[in-house]
Amino acid sequence: MSKSPLKSFINGAWVLPATSTATVDAINPATEEVCAVVAVCGHDDADRAVQAARAAFDGYAATTLEHRIALVEKLITIFERRYDEMVTAISTEMGAPYDLSYDAQAESGPGHLKATVKAVREMAWDYDVGTDGIVTHEPIGVCVLITPWNWPINQIVCKVGPALITGCTMVLKPSEMAPLSAQLFAEMVEEAGFPKGVFNMIHGTGASVGDTLTSHPEVDMISFTGSTRAGIQIAKNAADTVKRVAQELGGKSANIVFADSDLEAAVTRGVLHCYGNTGQSCNAPTRMLVEQSVYDEAVAIAARVAKAAQLGDPMKKGPHYGPVVSKAHYDKIQGLIQVGIDEGAQLVAGGTGRAEGFDRGYYVKPTVFAGVHNKMRIAQEEVFGPVLVLIPFIDEADAIAIANDSPYGLYAYVQTNDMDRARRVARLMRAGGVSINGTSQDYMAPFGGYKQSGNGREYGEFGVRDFLEIKSISGFR
Ligand code: NAD
């Protein structure tokens, strides 16, 4: 039975594109079957959504913070009621295994919304400056929010939550590859009762609506998460009307493993973390830098852990990894594994070809390369799949130099039992976040990158501030 095309949500109504008849099939990566058909919006629909957000802005911006907090708290309640539907939507559309969808992917929805409420309650919105002045904060205006497929609801909520609570109005364009979670979330926002036009969601592709959304004169801000390639194009489009552009882009994060760490635990943790979400996390620790004296031992541990990694059906519970998101992405990863082989890196686990035991689904073999040096493409380019490289280093200075020798600077990791060293190295790594010995960051801590990993920060108060203008008024007191 053919599926009805998913509608977009514009100015408080569910609509099909006005003129475009194009559709995109979203594919379940485990079954290779169509899981949703997206009705692709065109430039006229994008314009209509932006105009709706503009028309709603003055009225919504004038509501009180307490009113908006109450609406967001209602949204949290609805999200928690429909939680299981969200878990299924995410696993279906992008292949995250059930446990990951339940414990982390879907959980990030209410998790971030609650952190956003906490942040705005604790923030100083107005404060005195000098003898008679104040500083105040106001919503920036109409926002375009563009999100990827890999942590689909996390990225949507990190943008929509702060935009709603600060009094902004918005057009969300989710990834065409992960439309089910976005559709469900839009239904939740509708039910929460935000005024017409405050939240709009249009399905489409970069080609079908990207230019209209990112160059529209009525748009004040763009918050984008995705590839560095698309981020550069978006920033260029936004420049003509001097929009604020917040970007969360790619990564190639270093994980420095010192010889004084608990090697078995540190390497095992690093491999499993790299393979989490089947390697499709922007902050995945994909470059393991290992001190020369324990390098061979670390390679042996990593190969053993990778060979033991289980792949499986995303709909089933258990500690397995899922497929990668699409055939095109599978092919790209296969190509980069071949590049590693051709460059002379030593394959110690995995390799090219579909993972054994699967006659369908985009299952990549969990792969480890040893004998890698940092100038190889396999060490510089974001693979976005379960592919780990191990690079030896001589001493602390060498490790930091290799870690920082990357166009990216999203996240970094350090493993050592010497806490003075851990703190020193964490400060010297050019990355927006650092994890020491396997710790994970709080929803209130800022998340974002240095260098070509982006600008701006999401999560907690820093994520809220991205959606605010700052006004200084003298003679106010
Ligand atoms: P992508 O750049 O292909 O697409 C992301 C979104 O942008 C999609 O909604 C897509 O339709 C849209 N888009 C593409 N081209 C556009 C254009 N020219 N104008 C407007 N919109 C456009 O990325 P992807 O493949 O969906 O996601 C994977 C990438 O996202 C990886 O590089 C990953 O590192 C990055 N990412 C970064 C973070 C972070 O927080 N730094 C988080 C998750 C993912």
UniProtKB/TrEMBL annotation:
PROSITE patterns: ALDEHYDE_DEHYDR_CYS (PS00070)
Annotated catalysed reactions: an aldehyde + NAD(+) + H2O = a carboxylate + NADH + 2 H(+)
Any one GO molecular-function label of the UniProt entry: aldehyde dehydrogenase (NAD+) activity
The enzyme's E.C. designation: 1.2.1.3
Signal sequence range: none
Annotated TM spans: none
Organism superkingdom: Bacteria
Keywords: Oxidoreductase
SUPFAM superfamilies noted in UniProt: ALDH-like
Aldehyde dehydrogenase domain location: 20-473
Top-tier EC class: oxidoreductase
Pfam families: Aldedh
Family, as annotated: Belongs to the aldehyde dehydrogenase family.
Protein name (database record): aldehyde dehydrogenase (NAD(+))
Organism annotation: Sphingorhabdus wooponensis
